[in-house]
Amino acid sequence: MPGGARPSARPRVLRHPGRPVVAAFAGAILLGTALLSTSAAAAGPGNAPFQTALFTATSAVTVTGMTTVDTAGYWSPFGQGVILALCQIGGLGIVTSASLLFLVVARRLGLRGRLATQVETQGRDLGGGRGLILFIVGFTLAVEALIAAFLVGRLWIGLDEPFGTALWEGTFHAVTAFTDAGFSLYPDSLAGFATDGWFLLPIAAGIIVGGLGFPVWLELRSRPASPSRWSLHTKLTLAMTGALLVVGVVAITALEWTNPLTLGAESPAGRVLGGFFSAVAPRTAGFSVVDYAHMGTDSLLVTDMLMFVGGGSASTAGGIKVTTLAILFLIVWAELRGEREVVGFGRGIPAPVLRQALTVAVIAINAVVLGTLAVIATNDVDLSSALFECVSAFSTAGLSIGLAPRLDGVGQAILMILMFLGRVGPLTLGVALVLRDRERLFTHPEERPLVG
Asked: What is the pTM of this model?
């Protein structure tokens, strides 16, 4: 070709479909940082420090909700609007990017891989990119509007807030609930509504709906009355989400039932409501109705596990995802039973998917462990506190025991890295693992090392 140019001579960053996603999220964070660094964004005089603006922007774009300052008191209405916009962009960007990447992957798998995908989805027509984006945006705005209507009504009619205040606060929390961002306009998060089911339950519903993931809702829309025809992904997501919700509610409510600093001071109904919400929020929304700094170590460990798992694939939730955990359990179950095939709901799970689940889990564990070690090495904090903050950051849950504001610049930088990795890392890693799934034309000699 003229000038010696090759057909593939395009920027290397664009050759992998996941790399533009990483660049887009990084660009959104930088833009948010610039806006939050202006004098108009801060409630007080002067500009917000760069570190504060960067941390807040990173937390908003990655829909984490972890903060180093009080959102309502530190940021002006303009700054709060910027945070809300970043949460909405981050939430929509995550879901649309994930869904479109899956379409790109399906088209690059080759005939054999595409046939396997068609079998797994049972012939669902995912449509083109434009139709996909329109459905995601429409579904998102519709759910957020419904949640906002409940919250605005509760604040305006039930709690006598001025309509303008109720509209802003209700809309803000509806968006941050569905996107699992967890930012709140109240200094104590949602502790002031700890016994208000009319306010907490719509937010909890938004967290659950946003955390299931678009592929599940697409299938539920097309086949609402045909559970037997649902894909394995939908069945695993719904089953694990329900199981983790039940286990979380029972464990946290029981462990904190007599703790006067958390649930113990409420009525029995209030304790159940608080335990329910405290089991939903760790699925990657940073809202809280209790002070996690006063929780028992056992409850914090349960919360760590719930945050680490997160929600559904192609959703606003973080973590290793419920399907990954389900596959790991199925691997263990098959091994204990001496079965050669890993089966879920009557469907065999291919070996590449098993390896991908193991890879995601191992990388996530190592990221959390290394982040925790780095925080302990650079700051005078105990293991439980450092682990909680790092798991929360990597899983983009956003819950905190108040450690993030007390960390030095290095510690906060570690949390920011974990937030970014936890948001875009699993997505791009999953795509990379699928795209590298090639059939080898030869096998190596086998040898069995000792295990255990």
From this structure: 0.86
